[in-house]
């Protein structure tokens, strides 16, 4: 009999041992964390790194004394590790902030300074509102026209052939997501970038939901900007942005004067969350070890190679769960999944699934699952345009479940059994 590791490349029980929260019980039930799309749990390596920093090196940066010098080194290493995670070659192309939304508001305002009346920004109905609303605000302030790439309402996909018609000579920015936080669709961002660049437009890629599921390589994607959220890939609450150096140097940031004109500091407004950056390094340490243990990265592999190997191993493991998750949900009476369900096309999605159930408000379903110690999200999860395109805004949106590499087939079974209780 083949083992789970032989079939999917990851020993999930060994992985789960890294995450203290996974052992939590509520009313005698072990908690099932299917809320990963809103934020994942963190490994011991992350927790230990935060504790060590706060115990030994807690200080502001830029000083001559030991703790400050150690903090400077920590911040530099975090930028280098962030570059390794997304495939950038210059640590100064990595910008940290409190979250993706704040970073996007900052960059969009800086880009907005260069826009003129009759310029155009292209947005999609599939994106998280953090990659929509900031651009709408810029468009309103600068008199810029917004053009929309609509979403297929059945499979929740984007037609990039239509993008070729939407992008034109006045297009200055194309904002698109790498993977949908609501329904799991993976978009062909490389093609979108090619279309945008052919018109001379910048591309702004939301990779927040791709972060825990897919290898990211900005060099192959050729994105001008790519933003993600470490707290979605097993790290503390942070935002992280990649920007091509030429753009970060050119753009005028909204900043205080001592920050200077050099990236990334010109965009990192105020004191950074140093303890969270320490935790991020701990999470990268964990992921790198995963790449060496299960991703075929040799012991002497660089951090970049080990992180890439880890994400490939995670993708393989999760790919083995997507089919059973969808099949289990489809066996629940009255349940309707929005998004790709064709078994032949599951490579086009990540294991995030949203659905409605006839006769039940999404919050009712979430509360029922919570009573069974199953964590899941309901509502629109900031996929504001998508929920309205699907006509679900007035009925509470959808119920969303999301798997990551510490989830198991047994947890899928617990989910479907709990949903069956409602039918």
CATH homology group of the largest domain: Type I PLP-dependent aspartate aminotransferase-like (Major domain)
What structural class do helix, strand and pairing data support? alpha/beta
Distance between the termini: 35 Å
Helical content, roughly?
A: 40-55%
Q: Tell me the Rg in angstroms.
A: 21 Å
Number of strands: 15
> Per CATH, which architecture of the largest domain?
3-Layer(aba) Sandwich
**How many helical stretches?**
15
Shape: globular
Largest sheet: 7 strands, mixed
CATH class of the largest domain: Alpha Beta
CATH topology of the largest domain: Aspartate Aminotransferase, domain 2
The overall number of domains is: 2
Mean pLDDT rating: 96
Strand content: 5-15%
Question: Which strand order spans the largest sheet, edge to edge or round the barrel?
Answer: 4-10-9-8-7-5-6
The low-pLDDT segments are: 1-7
Listing every helix as H and every strand as E from the N terminus to the C terminus, the arrangement reads HHEEEHHEHEHEHEHEHEEHHHEEHEEHEH
Describe what this molecule looks like in 3D.
By secondary structure, the chain is α/β, with parallel strands linked by helices. It has 2 domains: 4-43 and 303-420, Aspartate Aminotransferase, domain 1, CATH 3.90.1150.10; 48-282, Aspartate Aminotransferase, domain 2. 40% of the residues lie in helices and 14% in strands. It has helices at residues 4-8, 12-16, 44-56, 66-86, 100-112, 133-142, 160-166, 189-198, 218-221, 245-250, 274-294, 303-330, 362-371, 384-389, 409-420, and strands at 25-26, 29-30, 32-33, 94-97, 120-124, 145-149, 171-177, 202-206, 225-228, 239-243, 335-338, 352-357, 374-375, 377-379, 398-402. The protein has a 7-stranded mixed beta sheet, sandwiched between helices. Helix 9 links the parallel strand 8 and strand 9. The longest helix has 28 residues, at 303-330. Residues 1-7 have low confidence and may be disordered.
């Amino acid at each position: 009999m083949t083992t789970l590791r032989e079939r999917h490349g990851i020993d999930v029980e060994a992985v789960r041992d890294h995450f203290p929260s996974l052992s939590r019980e509520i009313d005698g039930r072990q908690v099932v964390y299917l809320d990963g799309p809103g934020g994942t749990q963190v490994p011991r390596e992350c927790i230990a790194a935060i504790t060590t920093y706060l115990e030994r090196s807690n200080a502001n940066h830029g000083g001559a004394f030991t703790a400050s010098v150690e903090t400077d080194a920590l911040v530099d290493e975090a930028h280098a590790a962030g570059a390794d995670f997304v495939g950038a070659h210059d640590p100064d192309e990595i910008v940290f902030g409190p979250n993706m939304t704040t970073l996007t508001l900052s960059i969009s305002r800086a880009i907005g300074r260069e826009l003129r009346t009759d310029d155009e920004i292209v947005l999609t109905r599939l994106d998280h509102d953090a990659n929509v609303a900031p651009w709408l605000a810029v468009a309103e302030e600068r008199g810029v026209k917004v053009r929309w790439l609509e979403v297929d309402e059945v499979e929740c996909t984007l037609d990039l052939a239509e993008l070729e018609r939407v992008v034109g000579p006045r297009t200055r920015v194309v904002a698109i997501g790498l993977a949908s936080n609501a329904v799991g669709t993976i978009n062909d961002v490389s093609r979108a970038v090619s279309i945008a660049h052919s018109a001379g437009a910048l591309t702004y890629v939301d990779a927040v939901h791709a972060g825990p599921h897919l290898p990211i390589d900005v060099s192959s994607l050729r994105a001008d900007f790519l933003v993600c959220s470490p707290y979605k890939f097993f790290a503390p609450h942070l935002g992280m942005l990649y920007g091509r150096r030429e753009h970060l140097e050119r753009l005028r940031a909204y900043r205080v004067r001592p920050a200077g004109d050099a990236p990334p500091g010109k965009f990192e407004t105020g004191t950074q969350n140093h303890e969270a950056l320490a935790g991020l390094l701990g999470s990268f340490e964990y992921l790198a070890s995963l790449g060496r243990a299960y991703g075929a990265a040799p012991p002497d592999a660089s951090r970049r190679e080990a992180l890439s190997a880890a994400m490939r191993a995670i993708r393989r493991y999760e790919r083995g769960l997507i089919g059973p998750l969808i099949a289990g949900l489809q066996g629940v009476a009255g349940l309707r999944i929005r998004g790709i369900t064709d078994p032949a096309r599951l490579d086009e999605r990540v294991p995030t699934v949203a659905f409605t159930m006839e006769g039940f408000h999404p919050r009712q379903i979430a509360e029922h699952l919570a009573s069974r110690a199953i964590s899941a999200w309901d509502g629109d999860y900031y996929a504001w345009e998508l929920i309205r395109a699907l006509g679900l805004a007035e009925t509470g949106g959808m119920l969303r479940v999301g798997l990551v590499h510490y989830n198991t087939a047994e947890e899928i079974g617990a989910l479907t059994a709990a949903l069956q209780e409602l039918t």
